[in-house]
Amino acid sequence: MIGGMTLPLSPDELLTTTRSVRKRLDLDRPVPIELVRECLEVALQAPTGSNEQGWHWIVVTDADRRRAIGDYYKQSYDRYRAVRNERIATLSAERQVVRSRVASSADHLAERMGDVPVLVLGCLTVAELPAGNQAGLWGSLLPAAWSYQLAARARGLGSAWTTLHLAYEKEIGELLGIPQNVRQGVLLPTAYYTGETFRPAPREPLDTVLHLDSW
User: What domain of life does the UniProt record list for this protein's source (predicted)?
Assistant: First the structure.
């Protein structure tokens, strides 16, 4: 039974105010493992192809392992940052302001990833990765990871969706003893968040991306 206290959020409010939390993660406040378990219980209600439920969830709280994952993440992020900054420089002045703010937040998390009290890895049992479109495969994991983030938000926890650690998937897998037929899909750093100013984010108008009947 899921018995934790949740915030009084409507479904639409929960869906539109669950943000990637990076600078506002409270790195000094311990997160009860039972709270993480509650969020994962919610995540397990997400759909999977043929109801196979081939997911696995690695919850890392050990300080040394968190620090090691943080080091791998930082190495991957440093390479990503150089490419990202080049892209930002090509944007309009208005878009540069927005992207630079997000970039600053991501930079902060990369520096402190190993200090986040809980790191959750969403994984999937995979016989062999297909060569073509993999949407049918990862569609059996990613909805559950998003459900985890929603459940965390409702319980006063913040998280951020990232996959940059996958550049070191093999090394992290060995660190955590993950079998070779279990592939990592997402890393969700989790901590209590500070502040209460979560609100819907600016988005491009729907009609710029909506296609009715054809492109």
Answer: Bacteria
Rounded Cα–Cα distance for residues 51 and 140 (Å): 9
Angle of helix 33-43 versus helix 142-154 axis, rounded to 10: 130
Angle, vertex CA 47, rays to CA 4 and CA 189, nearest 5 = 50
pTM: 0.91
Backbone angles phi, psi at 201, to 5 degrees: -90, 155
- DSSP of 115-138, one letter per residue? GSSEEEEEEEE-SS--SS--HHHH
Asked if 140 and 55 count as a contact pair (C-beta separation under 8 A), the reply is: yes
Q: Which amino acid is at 115?
A: D
For the purposes of burial, counting CB atoms within 10 Å of the CB of 69, is it exposed (0-12), middle (13-18) or buried (19 or more)? buried
Domain ranges for the chain: 11-197
| pLDDT tens sequence across 174-204 | 999 999 999 999 999 999 999 878 999 888 8
- In the CATH hierarchy, which fold is given to the domain comprising 11-197? NADH Oxidase (3.40.109)
Helix boundaries (H) for 113-200: 135-138, 142-154, 169-176
